[in-house]
Write a structure and sequence with these properties.
Elements: H1 3-63, H2 76-91, E1 94-98, H3 111-122, E2 128-135, E3 138-148, H4 154-157, H5 165-170, E4 182-191, H6 192-245, H7 259-332, H8 341-365, H9 367-372, E5 379-383, H10 384-401, E6 405-410, E7 416-420, H11 421-438, E8 444-452, E9 455-462, H12 469-472
Parallel strand pairs: 6-8
Antiparallel strand pairs: 1-4, 2-3, 3-4, 5-7, 8-9
Helix pairs in contact: 1-2, 1-6, 7-8, 10-11
Length: about 475
């Protein structure tokens, strides 16, 4: 995917995210403002109606006109009901005067109003109440504004016998109030659907404007980035061409003076330096190759000389060694006379050591196998006890000279094994000779052989100086 496309996608994601966050905050804020506005409007309606009621009550009392069928419209409750009906027809809002001790059925409180009126009776500080409700399946905002009895209200709500005749004849309830008592409340019901339609229209307008803005911004950026990305695309194409062809003479055609232009010129300068460096490296490689060829010829000559030396040495070593082995066999077979037991042991040691040394020389001289890493093992079945004792016999003289106790412990379950006998003895010989060399006088050297997990385990331990952990890593390296 091109950087241009990545940039546009990233920008779209950022703008959509930012727009969504702003939309959420605006929605939340607008919702709060909507609720506050609705409640302020409901309170304003209730206060205006209360003011109208108070004015009518004061005027009715001051005028001293009689209350009859024709003048009952001046009664606050009657006029308030008429105002509420007209207001509902024009606005959809429901305005109602309600009381627990109502006189007219249209003022009878519904369950929500009765609940609030009871709370207002219990708590005299509760002068208004807000709440959400559902009426006939529609969500509404409800507001109740408390109405308290004033002096002018006692004309119709004081003692029944003192009330106007028209009131006494038509109403049985709503008497015996005192100034300051809760008479009822003005109930305002505002359908949320009406207000929310306006709120939703404003919110949709904001979303539409925001979406159009995002599209315009992205389009402008997409068009402008194309101009800025062309030099980078040229640079990319040039680098790809150099990678595929190896032609360092290729130049970047970038003429702009901005950062991309500087990058193009720097790339051209780098290409020139690389050409010079490449030519210098080719010369150095040619010189190094010539030196290496000379070194290879010298190594081949040295290797040939080594092979000739080893061949000559094998002849020189085998001749006296075969003589030693032959004379040892003559003595062992008692051809020249009898030997006592001690002498026979010495002769056997000489014969065994000679054969072992001859086998080692044969392996060392097989340089082709050693250098190729294909040293072949000559497997045979032999007693472990005899192999260990052979090495013990060869080295016990060196141990005795340093007054070292050379002890061999071979468990009874150790019998015969199939392995390279010469290599086995040589490894053990190397371990024991090193132990003798680095163990102080009057020390101890132990050779233990046993079976562990169906495998032969031979260990050599001594009271010598031991090896540091760093030196242990060098054990299997040559020399």
């Amino acid at each position: 995917m091109k950087i241009r496309h990545k940039l546009v996608i990233l920008l779209v994601v950022l703008l959509v995210t930012l727009n969504s966050v702003i939309a959420f905050l605006i929605y939340k804020r607008a919702r709060q403002e909507f609720t506050r506005e609705v409640r302020e409007k409901a309170k304003l309606i209730a206060v205006e109606l209360e003011t109208t009621r108070n004015y009518l009550a004061s005027s009715l009392k001051a005028s001293k006109i009689g209350i009859t069928e024709q003048t009952k419209v001046f009664i606050p409750a009657v006029s308030g009901h008429a105002i509420g009906v007209k207001f509902a027809e024009k606005t959809g809002y429901i305005i109602k005067q309600t009381s627990v001790r109502y006189r007219n059925l249209f003022n009878k409180p519904d369950p929500f109003e009765e609940m609030v009126l009871r709370k207002m009776e219990e708590d005299h500080n509760l002068a208004e109440y807000w709440g959400d409700d559902i009426i006939e399946g529609k969500r509404v905002e409800r507001y109740l504004y408390a109405l308290y009895v004033k002096e002018e209200c006692l004309l119709c709500h004081g003692a029944k016998e003192q009330a106007p005749e028209f009131i006494r004849n038509n109403y049985d309830a709503g008497y015996d109030y005192k100034v300051g008592e809760l008479r009822g409340a003005i109930s305002v019901v505002i359908p949320k659907e009406i207000a929310e339609q306006r709120f939703a229209a404003n919110f949709i307008f904001f979303i539409t404007v925001g979406s159009i803005s995002i599209v315009l911004i992205v389009t402008i950026i997409f068009l402008t980035t194309g101009k800025f990305m062309k030099p980078i695309e040229k640079l990319t194409a040039t680098v790809t061409s150099i990678k595929n062809t190896g032609d360092l003479t290729t130049k970047v055609d970038v003429v702009s003076k901005d950062e991309v232009g500087k990058l193009g010129r720097a790339f051209n300068d780098l290409s020139v330096k690389l050409q010079s460096t490449y030519a210098s490296l080719e010369l150095q490689i040619a010189e190094k190759t010539a030196h290496l060829q000379k070194a290879v010829l010298a190594l081949e000559r040295a290797n040939k000389m080594k092979s000739e030396f080893m061949a000559n040495m094998s002849h020189e070593l085998r001749t006296p060694l075969n003589a030693i082995i032959g004379f040892a066999e003559v003595l062992r077979d008692k051809i020249s006379g009898d030997l006592n037991d001690e002498q026979l042991d010495f002769v056997n040691d000489i014969h065994g050591s000679g054969l072992h040394l001859l086998q080692m020389i044969n392996d060392i001289l097989d340089l082709s196998k050693v250098e190729a890493g294909r040293m072949e093992l000559q497997y045979e079945i032999f007693p472990v006890h005899d192999a260990i004792e052979d090495v013990h016999t060869i080295l016990k003289g060196l141990a005795n000279k340093k007054h070292l106790e050379l002890k061999t412990t071979i468990l009874t379950e150790v019998g015969d094994i199939e392995a390279d006998r010469v290599k086995f003895k040589q490894i053990l010989y190397n371990l024991l000779s090193n132990a003798i060399k680095f163990t102080p006088e009057i020390g101890h050297i132990n050779v233990d052989a046993g079976i562990m997990d169906d495998m032969l385990q031979v260990s050599v331990s001594d009271t010598g100086i031991g090896m540091k952990p760093d030196d242990q890593e060098k054990v299997f390296k040559e020399f």
